[in-house]
Amino acid sequence: MPLDSGQLERDILQVFRCACQQDRPDIAEFMLAALEKLDDEWGSSVASDRPLIDGYRDLIGTCGYRKS
Q1: Of 2, 3, 8, 19, which has the maximum CB count within 10 A?
Q2: How far is residue 15's CA from residue 9's CA, in Å, rounded to a whole number?
Q3: Is residue 29 part of a domain?
Q4: Do residues 34 and 15 make contact, with C-beta atoms less than 8 angstroms apart?
């Protein structure tokens, strides 16, 4: 992965989190798709500290136990 892509991924993750906090699922979904696209450059890496994995963890933490 190019070095500048790492910073880009971290920036997109920050915007993803901001969109979630501001209840903008449309923007959050767009940012998650961008992270997925950039994550393709990791290849078959299984590193758990990738920004995409952090984004998925955020989703699990915020959406997993909502009560109706």
Answers
A1: 19
A2: 10
A3: yes
A4: no
What does the alpha-carbon distance between residue 54 and residue 59 come to, in Å, rounded to a whole number? 9
Query: For the chain, what is the domain count?
Result: 1
Confidence (pTM): 0.77
Close Cβ partners of 2 (under 8 Å, ≥ 6 residues apart): 41
Tens digits of residue pLDDT in 4-47: 678 999 999 999 999 999 999 999 999 999 999 998 876 666 66
User: Domain span at residue 45?
Assistant: 3-63
- Here the tokens at position 48 are 């758990």
* Whole-number Å distance between alpha carbons of 8 and 14: 10
